[in-house]
Amino acid sequence: GSPQKYDPSFKGPIYDRGCTDIVCCVLLVIAIVGYVVVGIVAWTHGDPRKVIYPTDSRGQFCGQQGTPNEKKPFLFYFDIVKCASPLVLLEFQCPTTQIFVSKCPDRFMTYLSAYGSQVPAELEYYRHFCVPEFKNLQKGPIEVLKDKECPAMIIPSTPLVRRCFPAIQAKKGVIMVGNKTSYEDGRGRQRNVTELLEGAKKANVVLETRQLAMKIFEDYTVSWYWIIIGLVIAMVASLIFIVLLRFLAGIMVWVMIVMVILVLGYGILHCYMEYAKLKGEAGSDVSLKDLGFQTDLRVYLHLRQTWLAFMIILCIVEVVIILLLIFLRKRILIAIALIKEASRAVGHIMTSLLFPLCTFFLLCLCIAYWASTAVFLSTSNEAIYKVFSETPCQFSGQTCKPETFNMSNVTKLCPDAQCLFTFYGGETVYHKYLIVLQFFNVFMFFWLANFVIALGQVTLAGAFASYYWAFKKPDDMPAFPLFSAFGRALRYHTGSLAFGSLILAIVQVIRVILEYLDHRLKAADNKFAKFLLSCLKCCFWCLEKIIKFLNRNAYIMIAIYGTNFCTSARNAFFLLMRNIIRVAVLDKVTDFLFFLGKLLIVGSVGILAFFFFTQRIKLVQDTAPPLNYYWVPILTVIVGSYLIAHGFFSVYGMCVDTLFLCFCEDLERNDGSPERPYYMS
């Protein structure tokens, strides 16, 4: 506009503002109230025990305090062979009686042999595996088996995930149960043990993953405090790094660049040495393709091809980084000036470095509320019982009530029909709309999580903008810039933040739906549908990235000017377009430098963790805990230190972006003359 006279009382555009996007603010409040109501309804109906404990044929839980099953922790199947039927995968329930027992059977026995035995103790032992109501030991065996009060046979079993599974072992490729390859099924037929295996496999799809999970859990229990020490080292390294950036930004940047090149160089050298060392060793020339996927990742480290692949990847990264540095050396100098200014800003507002902890805490609250609501919603069904019959029966699959089942017509028309618990479901309005509530739960999680992130960005942007627009730094700055920025964001701009995060949440929910559809279409052979889905997934991924970029800059403009979301987004977009070359280079160069910083911290902590957990450091060789998979703590330390470094650098990144937008504004408003001096240093 018209040339402004420099006015010492002008405090920059930070301070005059009113409420923005009030409609969205009201919408957010209504949505949160609705979300709380959904949570309360889910908590009154839900029962998370359904996820944790197995249920018997009556829908009761095993091993629960204060119930008749208190001392019976294991689920026993009358005839596990029936679990091999395809019904299991549809109904999630074996079409056989299931009861709770105090311990799994440890011997082969049929009911006929136990009944006819001269030793009373055998029948008494067998009774442990009959339904609790079975007391009459004099009842004829044919009657007992017909009424399904006892199993026709028991076989040696081992408890696994609270269920009794046949104790199957392979000796020289022959499958056995308790040293036998066949067994009598209690009805006079000899059957092969492989039939048991099929039943156990279907009843036990989760077995291998559970075992892997248990081993990983064991590793965490012995190495957790070493992991915490690793994360503390990462935190201290990040802090030192940021403090050093303030005083030695220029030197640090160049040192960092050289260090990364050297670290990559060492990686290439190490890969080459391992590659050369494996030359001529037996089995080291097997190709990755022939080996296939192995859960024990150490196998791959004995292949030459693995080290060759690592070496090629590292070489490509090294060459790309060196070429980029040669072409962008001039722009790096501007970026260094900006980083130095950002360091000063962070130095004046040191509390900003701890602010990501506040965002992290709020995000954890969102995740915890979403996860618990999801579990309670998915377990808020009632027990549904259905008629199962081994012979054809017109009532099969119909719902029934176990209390009145024996007096009903069904038992007269189909003598061997049973009323078994099948799954948790329901017929009420609440149960019919459960899927809608789950969808609402996911949507609200995305909206609130994005809102929390947006609040963090606006707060930081407001604090750093108040630093930039202070003519005499730091005298003209408010006393508590971070708290006043946080207060401004919540008091005036909740609506704008809700608007920005709502747009992002809608795109993210659409992406989740597309992923779900893609997952459902995996089995289908419709090439066109798959192609269309892939295109849509790609488009929405790009859209999400663009919206995140626009939102971030819009939030900075909101923090500076207090305009509404749409105006801020438009102004930010055109301001960036007018300075597109500066944006591209500065943004990318600073991002690149921060990325190198993260890489350095994560790389050094990761290498330290690798040498420690693989017991290669002579000094502390005996202190390293024994592990099933040493990659478990190493990966945890690497991911954790990346998140910590990312937290610290995100503050810095926000500072650079804010100062950059303020700098572009400053250049357009002022010309450096005494009448209109620049606000920048």
Give a topology summary.
Layout: H1 22-45, H2 49-52, E1 74-77, H3 87-91, E2 98-101, E3 109-110, H4 111-116, H5 120-127, H6 141-146, E4 153-154, E5 157-160, E6 163-166, E7 168-171, E8 174-177, E9 182-184, E10 190-192, H7 193-202, H8 207-277, H9 288-291, H10 304-327, H11 329-348, H12 355-378, E11 382-388, H13 409-413, E12 418-425, H14 429-432, H15 434-468, H16 481-521, H17 527-561, H18 565-578, H19 580-613, H20 631-669
Antiparallel strand pairs: 1-2, 3-4, 5-6, 7-8, 9-10, 11-12
Helix pairs in contact: 1-12, 1-15, 1-16, 8-10, 8-11, 8-19, 8-20, 11-19, 11-20, 12-15, 15-16, 15-17, 15-20, 16-17, 17-18, 17-20, 19-20
Explain how this protein is built.
With 681 residues, the protein is mainly alpha-helical. Helix 15 packs antiparallel against helix 16. Pfam families: Choline_transpo. Choline transporter. It is a multi-pass membrane protein.
pLDDT < 50 runs, ≥5 residues: 1-10, 87-92
Estimate the strand proportion. Answer: 5-15%
End-to-end separation in angstroms reads: 23 Å
**pLDDT average, as an integer?**
83
Identify the strand order in the major beta sheet: 1-2
The count of strands amounts to 12
Global structural class? mainly alpha
Number of helices: 20
Number of separate structural domains: 3
Multimeric organization: single chain
- Largest beta-sheet characterization: 2 strands, antiparallel
The gyration radius over C-alpha positions equals 33 Å
